[in-house]
């Protein structure tokens, strides 16, 4: 019934299966990729014609995770998949970036690449499977795709590279690196690393390149069985005559414009040259005008690239290794927890750090289930940052991608939750942009966290490298401008500390770069990062020792798991009372870790004392602060240590005789008490009279000796279970001797105890 074609290979310890012809048969190309028990369907459709006047390539990649793939129902009010999550957006970009450069220049047919995760085994990350499925679907579709590409994830642990590690293995290791490549060259790199060297990172990229070659071979075998006939398209370049005309007309103007160092002045000069060219073709057809516009862009690229390769002359006059002037300011904003203004040339970012408690963590619902993230980095790129009028609102794919790149660069140097139990949010607002605002975010974000008192392992800096490649000649450019990014062949971003790389990202516009070029780019980036770190240190060399006065304070307290119930109370009664009374926020987890937070240290101390009072055991002979909670005829009950009650008998209130307890204390009064005795059932006998109520110091017992002998030194009380024997005349351990006779001085107020008196205070 189905003309199904299938290819299988053993790859990284699991079977990778690519099949076509059974599912989504009306698409131009559709591949079902299975790796482990993770299954991704990718379908490719392409428009057969180009819209009139279109002069760009409308490729759109959509990656979607179906909750059913993991046997889950979406959380929240709407029980179906909705807008793209951050992970889906990032994976869509991950597929788009290596695929886009492999379509021929001048091909403008619209293409949709839709990848859907249909099954997820909890171990095999679906992003790599989706990239492989997309490459295979494009290869068999017949569209002019100069692939295929392969993709692989690499981990690094104990000095060994790991191919396609599981999610847990990646977390435990030192590297999470994704590479996409053709047979001959690397196309895309995305990574997060724990301060690894350039050699280790380059080795990981080459390891992934070699592994991806196995996937490419499998896709080629599938294409040999199932590929559709290639499209016949005319992409011949007949613009040589037009280019010569434009060069004569505006070539000198363009060359002069690109020698202007100021971006605004340079843009004005280029716009004048472009207007001059546009006027020369004003009488031509719309199609000819569109071709002329594209040709003029090619002419600009040739002039700029030629100047760099010929004499190393860059647009703003710098050498290939020179970094633009840097200015860094910390404490830029008065009320934020931490802030920095980072400016490099005409690129500028205001970064702020906000510290929050556990309830400020970001809840993320995905295929792996519900989890919480305590570090967030949000990047905003308003249109005014490039002097333009444009859309201003929710972040687009580019902003999400740039923010995640900066997140990956800073995440490896963050303290653990145990060391620093805060939720951290870094916000980067780009206020000027002329090249690598994401790396400005890394630098500014690092400084703002240091300003906020976040104990980073080391400061992090980032730099963007560019490439001009013509044949075998190439030049690697440090700290590229926006125009150099636009006219160059590579955008190579490296972030790290003085000890190593924390993030590496590469995007190229040509059919890959070689190991030699990558090695030179990494070495040059190392020098640039070191220079930038030095400039950052002028603003703030180390983390501030104190948090901002406006930041919440958090103290952690570990209690025994058996005491959790006592701290929470029935239905949460106790913990709610602690929060209401002290004003501090209290969080407790299943392991007994308690986090107490407030901007007022007194509130934290009050809540901490209360909790310790609940979980700690009272000590005989120790003095505590307490509060009178109930007054009875024979004394007063005092709450101390937050959650314990004890009795101060009327005889223990003062050294002199007390007629009524109410004459000495009142409900709600703060008192200082000493623990005299704790019976086996946990009942506590307290004394006020032996404690100075002003200073809390213990006082010498000044009662007359006769009172001490008759009332004070009673010896061990023993088990109250023998009271019945004493009443029958038995001599229970610790009981009074009935032959002592009456004690007249206690007859009035210390005779037979009223009902309700604790056992250890009853008298025979």
TrEMBL record:
Entry cofactors: Mg(2+)
Residues annotated as binding Mg(2+): 485, 491
Location of the S1 motif domain: 621-689
> Is Transferase one of the keywords?
yes
Superkingdom of origin? Bacteria
Q: Which GO terms describe its cellular component?
A: cytosol
Single annotated GO MF: 3'-5'-RNA exonuclease activity
Any keyword Cytoplasm?
Answer: yes
> Could you tell me where this protein is found in the cell?
Cytoplasm
Per its record, the protein catalyses: RNA(n+1) + phosphate = RNA(n) + a ribonucleoside 5'-diphosphate
> What EC numbers are recorded for this enzyme?
2.7.7.8
Q: Which SMART domains match?
A: KH, S1
Disordered: annotated segments = 688-764
UniProt keywords (A-Z) are: Cytoplasm, Magnesium, Metal-binding, Nucleotidyltransferase, RNA-binding, Transferase
Q: From start to end residue, where is composition biased (Basic and acidic residues)?
A: 701-728, 735-749
Which top EC class is given?
Answer: transferase
Identify its protein family.
Belongs to the polyribonucleotide nucleotidyltransferase family.
NCBIfam families, A to Z: polynuc_phos, PRK11824.1
Q: What does this protein do?
A: Involved in mRNA degradation. Catalyzes the phosphorolysis of single-stranded polyribonucleotides processively in the 3'- to 5'-direction.
Name used for this protein in its record:
Polyribonucleotide nucleotidyltransferase
